[in-house]
Write a structure and sequence with these properties.
The chain is α/β, with parallel strands linked by helices. The chain is built from eight helices and nine strands. Helices cover 40% and strands 16% of the residues. Helix 5 runs parallel beside helix 8 and helix 7 packs parallel to helix 8. The longest helix has 19 residues.
Length: 249
């Protein structure tokens, strides 16, 4: 049984970027806010045509001071959405700041595992890892599993990081990690964004821990994966390594 934690006002803020997540958003919000640990949620919505933000506004009436909404004018990419959320959270007193998808590919119950890794285990950055204990992915075609797995192998080869799941997007940051990174320099939007954030933390010698989780592909809504995101990741890793070599990271 998990311990219940009482620190300051909550266990942290869970940032969930959205674009056309009307089918998932209410369920994911209720799942996170029903956990025994007092998390808050920030939805960063990119002007979803399906009215995701309007539903969040309705739910805010029920979850006063727990559910927050940041609306952006247009779809600008996952990385910029998270950076927007990070800055919002850093302006407030959150010690732990989480990344999480809206589509239940990340199990809300695993937020507690990530929190424990940081609060009790001393991690500065805790990663919900699909590959640290094998391949823990459900409902993905083999081609996508191989693409994701070998992307992390490629990242390890180029960067020297020992992280098994470098492209993971289920993360808990201690606020000091985000405070030490110049967020205005983060330009990548997809897999490359996830890699860059880990690499910048690695370069600053923060304690990074991987927590095994099971990743389940979405059953509702559409995936945001694209060829341009994969291409960005491949070349972005090389760019990061070169910048590090020349002390320009």
């Amino acid at each position: 049984m998990h311990k219940l934690f009482k620190i300051n006002m909550n266990c942290g803020i869970v940032i969930i970027p959205t674009y056309n997540e009307i089918e998932n958003i209410e369920s994911i919000i209720r799942a996170v806010l029903s956990l025994p640990n007092p998390f808050h949620i920030l939805i960063v919505d990119d002007n979803s045509p399906d009215k995701t933000a309007e539903l969040v506004k309705e739910l805010q009436k029920e979850f006063l001071d727990q559910l927050f909404l940041a609306q952006r004018d247009k779809k600008s990419g996952l990385g910029t959405a998270y950076v927007h959320g990070f800055k919002w959270a850093l302006e407030r007193d959150y010690e732990f700041i989480f990344e999480m998808d809206a589509d239940f590919s990340h199990n809300p119950n695993d937020l507690i595992k990530l929190y424990e890794a940081c609060y009790f285990g001393g991690a500065d950055l805790a990663i919900g890892s699909r590959y640290v204990t094998g391949v823990n992915v459900v409902n993905w075609p083999l081609s996508r599993v191989l693409l994701s797995y070998f992307a992390s192998v490629y990242v390890r080869m180029i960067t020297g990081m020992k992280i098994m799941d470098a492209t993971a997007g289920f993360i808990c940051y201690n606020r000091k990690v985000l405070e030490s990174i110049n967020l205005d320099k983060i330009k990548f939007i997809g897999y490359a964004f996830q890699i860059e954030m880990k690499y910048r933390a690695f370069a600053k010698q923060y304690n990074i821990q991987e927590v095994p989780v099971i990743f389940t592909d979405r059953t509702k809504g559409q995936s945001k994966m694209s060829g341009s995101i994969i291409k960005e990741a491949m070349f972005g890793v090389l760019s990061l390594r070169i910048k590090k070599l020349f002390n320009r990271l």
